[in-house]
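Q: Hi! First time doing this. I have a protein sequence and I read that you can turn it into a structure. Is that right? Here it is:
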Amino acid sequence: MHKTVEMNRLLHTLTLLSAVLLAHFVSCGILQAQTQVDSLTLSTARWDTLEVHQGLVVSKTALRLFDSEQQLYRMDINPRFFYLQPVQPAKRQKVKRMGKQSGSTAAINGGYFITKTHKAIASYFLKIDNTIARYTNGWGEAAIAMDSTKALTFINQLSQIATQDPTWHRPYPNVLSAGPMLICDGRQLILSPQKQDKRHPRTVIGIQSDSTITLLVVDGRQRGAEGMTRVELAWTCRVLGMKEALNLDGGGSSTMWSQRQRNINHPSDRILFVRIPRKVANAILILPKGSQ
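A: Yes, that's right. Below is the predicted 3D structure, encoded as structure tokens:
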């Protein structure tokens, strides 16, 4: 009888301890929301092709991930045929206008920017055609850089690099910083939810092991498209095969545009029931290499 009571107390204590540890792991993000079902769903997802050029494919998929409805749009770019170019006009404009004015094949929103002004001012370091554009608030967490051959490079831990060498950007005529870095050398950097990391529309630029550049937009803040947290986004990029991936500006700024399809995704800003693309400070243009 005595042994039975002691055993019951021990089992009760272990049960309470397990519950406390589980709550701690969940609150710290140690237990991930991603499951084997999510992995199978994303890896076998059907992508509907929206647009095809020689060296560029635009596609979309709608699926259920992380126990939520998601809509993803991707643009896969062969760097043999296209190159990327950041742009920042004097005043904030819609991605569509920046794309059309430049004659680009497609465009996507760029990095963070100052919102309390009509002027176009990047939040972090921005360099366009060897000229440092208007920016404030320092270097940023990470960046994409394009050298004189238009080759794309991802730079992680940008602030640390810039502190050690303020001239680090000299080899690159074009640099756009944002962050955080989601994937670096094939390794997922964000493994657990961060404070205030809620689901929002997201924009990512990444690169595959075969050098294909992948632009990804995740719709959010609307029915059928809840958006993703940063840890969910990083996991998604890894499953989609990106070896490098940088988080760009998101929320109402997330916009993917092309000359053929116009606005490809559904931006989250709206007036009544009409979705309205946001005016942003800068964008990344996708230009055919014959236009150089």
